[in-house]
Amino acid sequence: MITHMMEPTPTQIIEALPHVHYEIEALLLTPKHTPDLAETVYFWKMAHGRVLFTFFSTEKCKRFADDVLSLDFGFPAEPLYGNDPKPLLDLFNKRLFHLTYSRIQEKDEWLMDKLLSPVMRQSRKFIDYMLQLTTITIDDNERHRWRDLKNADARGLPLQQNTSNIAHYQIQIIESNRGTDR
Q1: How far apart are the C-alpha atoms of 93 and 23, rounded to whole Å?
Q2: Contact 57, 159 (CB under 8 A)
Q3: How far apart are CA 18 and CA 142, in angstroms?
Q4: What angle, rounded to 10 degrees, do the helices at 10-28 and 38-57 form?
Q5: Cα distances (Å, whole numbers) of residue 123 to 3, 5, 143
Q6: Nearest-CA neighbor of 80 among 90, 93, 67, 89?
Q7: CA-CA distance, 40 to 46, in Å (whole number)?
Q8: The pTM is what?
Q9: How many other CB atoms are found less than 10 A from the CB of residue 63?
Q10: Please, what is the Cα angle at 171 between 165 and 172, to 5 degrees?
Q11: What is the pLDDT along the chain (182 residues), one digit of tens a residue?
Q12: Cβ contact 61:39 at 8 Å
């Protein structure tokens, strides 16, 4: 794995914050959905959980390229899956992005609780941390968004909207290619 000691600038850190918010919001809040979309919703949550696993558990010396890390905000990295995260992380990666014979033969559930619960707990700690943070200048609107996220999570509110800044456009492109030979 290629790593380097990137040191993001204060401006880069502030610009990354809404993207971190998006990832955490997508993990913690579940959109209203019909039962036939449950698998899609939980795959989506697993993908955001996987992104946040790296964000919360990677030490600066193990940063891959220009990954945004919780340490950039002064929030400590922690081993979310115990002292040997490799087996659970391999399972997480395999279940999300690989079609394998061992996956096909497995009869157990997808271990959503083991995979996502530690990341969700860390996400909630990060929200509290951001609301108390004084070493990085965060404008009032951004801090308000974090407070709203904390309240929505505490109240179990559904995700109200698609907060991605690119999803609608990307979906249009994908859907416009349906049924073509491209």
Answers
A1: 17
A2: no
A3: 8
A4: 140
A5: 24, 24, 15
A6: 89
A7: 10
A8: 0.82
A9: 20
A10: 105
A11: 555 678 999 999 999 999 999 999 999 998 887 888 887 888 888 889 999 999 999 998 889 889 999 999 999 999 998 888 887 788 777 777 777 777 677 666 667 778 889 999 999 999 999 999 999 889 999 999 999 999 999 998 887 655 555 555 555 665 666 555 55
A12: no
Residues in the chain: 182
The CA distance from 81 to 89, in Å, is 8
Task: Say which amino acid occupies 9.
Answer: T
Token pair of 116, please? 């996502």
Q: Give whole-number Cα distances, 33 to 39, 50, 109, 111, 128, in Å.
A: 10, 22, 21, 21, 28
Rounded distance between C-alpha atoms, residue 47 and residue 34, angstroms: 20
**DSSP labels for 28-66?**
H--B---GGGHHHHHHHHHHHHHHHHHHHH--GGG-BTT
